[in-house]
Design a protein that fits this description.
The complex is a heterodimer of chains A (269) and B (534). Chain A is of the alpha/beta class. Classes of the chains: A alpha/beta (269), B alpha+beta (534).
């Protein structure tokens, strides 16, 4: 009897460990990544259909890595026209085709921005100054940027100090033909805002810019084009079951059957 | 469940758990905050919080420096020398702060470094202008005092002309830097108005000197009997320039003072052939045009110029571990042609943050030894060429791994002693109750063992009645060969013949009842085997 309890306990422990490891990931920006570079702690609802979004909310397109179809761009335009706010956080320039489709002049210019105006040894972790008036940055004077990209066009919302350079050779110093210049890392055109730093939404950065994160609420994340998903098949299966009522019902039935069989057999005995 | 099967499942489950935990131990992403910075971002929690310096003061400081040129040039123009001295002191202090910041922030290779070079030259030029303007005023006063003494008047005219030429040359160089300085200043959104005003003030001061010369000597000033020339007219660091001339009418042996940029560089005697010569070895002097003149008593020569051109430099760095905590850095600072740069400051930048200063010796070699914390460190040697006609240089980065102090044996010894002490304490604590006469629960085992091993007459006399019953229970349990782990109830089940004894003892033990003397005697008899004899 005692051995049986020990076996059960260890199996439960093993099951918990297996569950923890198979239902998390280390993929950057993933909602299932509980580590520093995941977005599991970002309070947001994922959406996969861009039609009929609530205009009172903010749609966050986080580190997009898949193109938008003309139809999807049309839904976004309709959402913007209805008063919805779209925040595109991208540092690789993948959002530029979408920006063009939306008729925006803003563009993300990938680079390796570094600054002397910082409080960390890493030159890519530096201070950005809020220069524009927008609800996203209400009550915010400075933002801790994390290796952002520059944003061109639009009305500047966040600018770097003039002691900022694009560290092309990555040596952490101003060398070669690198020069100091003020850069814009966030700009807007109407309700469309482009932020050159999706890292602001990873778990490790949420506490650094809390007011900005709060100002975004309520947030919807575009789970179709953002890098917030995962390639982990176990997680994806779990998510599919959660989102498919028939599958959830089948699974519940599968769980109930052995119990029913067990009790039925006892009664027969 | 079959015991063997359950053990097998238990072992398999344990192995599974260990395997899963072991796999994570090698890649502890989920459990640790180890920094795994990517191209996109770094974990701020794992990056050291350390500012590279007061970067936010750099641009305001540049603004202050430009502002200070305007103030200083104005006070010189207004001949408010007391205020000018104070302004110059303030300007020098700001320049020192700026120089330190440029080195700390490691920006000497940028346009801010160029601004720094120009600022140094501007400071030098305004300092000279202040001194020359004051001397000019003295000459004006002396000229009135020596009216009628042609010899004195001529000497004043020579010096006045020398000063005028110096100021004119100084202004040319000052104005030349305006374009580059303004360009850099505008890039950093600095207010260039005071600086541009300083150029105008400087020009006005020089024009005032020109006016004075025209009033006193006309357009063709008297030629000084003390000649001067510099050959060659330009040179670089470690070159030798010959400053020489003739003093017509001078007495051999007359001391000739040679001034470079208004500072006495040397005093040489006039030769028998009435010539003098001073070989000037180019050392710590700014690159650019320089002024030189000589004096023989009250007689001033004209002003000659020479130009110092910059040279490139190279600096090497070699690291050697001194011991487990210290590293020795050594290297050579030379010009591109291999000439040693002597007595020059060298900075060693550790991990792009900490700076250690040292200096080259007469061979251009520097040595520094310092302690570093354990771990890998990247070092670089830098020469910032402040005040030298040399271009800055930095060595290749070199890395060193510091082992750090070995573990001190003291904590280990203390831990060992603590463990031994704890063991001794527990052992002693366990022994004490055995020696104690009190019949505690922990003593049951020992009492029983004694009963089994040495069947002795039971001594319960003098014991409280309930304790006496406990002793009798142990005696009977031992006599029947029942394990000590068995309770009175277990014993009653295992030895039904003595169930009455055990049940009564259960009531005494757990229900708190007290046996009577007679009961106790009956129990004693049963315990020692009296019932069997009966």
């Amino acid at each position: 009897m005692r051995e049986a309890w020990a076996v059960l306990l260890i199996l439960l422990l093993a099951g918990a460990v297996v569950f923890a490891h198979t239902t998390t990931t280390t993929e950057e920006y993933s909602r299932y990544n509980v580590g520093w570079n995941g977005t599991s702690n970002l309070a947001a609802e994922e959406v996969r259909d861009l039609r009929g979004l609530d205009p009172a909310s903010t749609l966050l397109v986080l580190a997009p890595d898949r193109p938008f179809t003309a139809e999807e761009a049309g839904y976004l335009r309709a959402f913007l026209d209805a008063g919805g706010r779209v925040l595109i956080a991208d540092e690789e320039g993948n959002a530029n085709p979408l920006l063009a489709d939306l008729g925006s002049t803003m563009r993300v210019r990938p680079g390796n921005l570094s600054s002397l105006d910082r409080g960390h040894t890493d030159p890519g972790l530096f201070i950005g100054y809020v220069v524009g008036n927008t609800t996203f940055f209400a009550g915010v004077e400075t933002v801790l940027a994390n290796r952002p990209a520059a944003v061109e066009g639009g009305e500047p919302l966040i600018e770097t100090s003039i002691l900022t350079w694009d560290d092309g050779d990555g040596d952490g110093r101003v060398s070669g033909d690198e020069t100091f210049a003020r850069r814009v890392v966030c700009a807007r055109e109407g309700n469309l805002t482009v932020l050159g730093d999706p890292s602001l939404f990873v778990n490790a950065m949420l506490a650094e810019n809390p007011t900005f994160i709060d100002n975004l609420q309520p947030v919807l994340i575009d789970a179709t084009h953002s890098r917030t998903g995962t390639t982990n098949p176990i997680i994806n299966t779990r998510v599919w079951i959660q989102q498919t009522p028939l599958a959830a019902a089948a699974l519940a039935a599968l769980a109930v059957l052995p119990v029913a069989w067990h009790f039925g057999r006892k009664r027969d005995d | 469940m079959n015991a063997r099967a359950s053990h097998a499942i238990l072992a398999a489950a344990a192995v599974l758990v260990l395997l899963l935990l072991g796999a994570q131990a090698t890649a502890p992403l989920l459990y640790t905050a180890e920094n795994t910075a990517t191209a996109a971002h770094a974990d701020p929690a794992t990056v050291q919080k350390k500012s590279p310096g007061n970067a936010d003061t750099l641009v305001p400081l540049m603004d202050d420096l430009l502002g200070q040129t305007g103030t200083l040039a104005l006070t010189i123009k207004l001949k408010d020398y007391e205020s000018a001295e104070s302004d110059l002191a303030r300007y020098s202090e700001l320049s020192r702060q700026f120089d330190r910041l440029v080195v700390t922030l490691d920006v000497s290779g940028t346009d801010i470094g160029e601004f720094q070079q120009n600022n140094r030259q501007n400071q030098e030029a305004l300092t000279t202008l202040l001194n020359d303007t004051r001397r000019f005023e003295d000459l004006k006063r002396l000229e009135i005092e020596v009216q009628g003494d042609d010899g004195q008047r001529m000497a004043i005219a020579y010096e006045g002309e020398a000063l005028r030429q110096k100021m004119r040359q100084g202004f040319s160089a000052y104005a030349e830097r305006e374009t580059a300085t303004t360009r850099i200043a505008e890039h950093y959104d600095l207010n260039t108005t005071p600086y541009q005003a300083s150029v105008e003030h400087f020009a006005e001061v020089v024009e005032a000197a020109d006016d004075w010369r025209e009033k006193t000597g006309g357009s063709t000033p008297p030629r000084s009997p003390l000649g001067i020339a510099v050959t060659p007219g330009e040179g670089r660091y470690a070159d030798t320039l010959l400053i020489a001339g003739t003093y017509i009418g001078g007495t051999p042996g007359t001391p000739i003072e040679v001034y470079i940029d208004s500072r006495v560089a040397a005093t040489v005697p006039l030769g028998d052939d009435r010539t003098y010569a001073y070989p000037y070895r180019v050392g710590r002097i700014l690159a650019g045009p320089h002024l030189v003149y000589a004096t023989a008593g009250a007689i001033f020569s004209e002003v000659a110029t020479f130009e110092i051109l910059p040279r490139n430099t190279t600096i090497t760095l070699a690291l050697a571990e001194v011991n487990r905590t210290a590293v020795a850095c050594t290297g050579n600072l030379t010009t591109a042609e291999g000439r040693p740069v002597t007595g020059a400051p060298v900075l060693l930048r550790v991990d792009n943050a900490t700076l250690v200063s040292t200096q080259t010796d007469q061979n251009g070699t520097y040595v520094a030894e310092f302690v570093l914390p354990a771990g890998e460190h990247t070092l670089r040697a830098e020469f910032h060429a402040a005040g030298y006609p040399l271009n800055a240089a930095e060595s290749e980065a070199a890395t060193v791994t510091i082992e750090g102090e070995g573990l001190s044996p003291l904590p280990l010894a203390v831990a060992l002693a603590a463990a031994v002490g704890t063991g001794w304490y527990f052992r002693r604590r366990r022994q004490q109750p055995e020696e104690s006469p009190a019949v505690e629960e922990e003593d049951e085992e020992d009492v029983t063992n004694e009963a089994v091993e040495q069947p002795q007459p039971v001594k319960i006399a003098g014991l409280p009645l309930r304790e006496a019953a406990t002793v009798l229970f142990r005696v009977l349990r031992a006599r029947l060969g029942l394990p000590e782990t068995k309770t009175p109830r277990d014993c009653a089940l295992l030895a039904p013949a003595h169930a009455g004894f055990f049940e009564r003892y259960e009531q005494i033990r757990y229900a708190g009842e007290t046996p009577s003397e007679e009961e106790l005697r009956a129990m004693e008899e049963e315990a020692v085997g009296g019932d069997e004899h009966a």
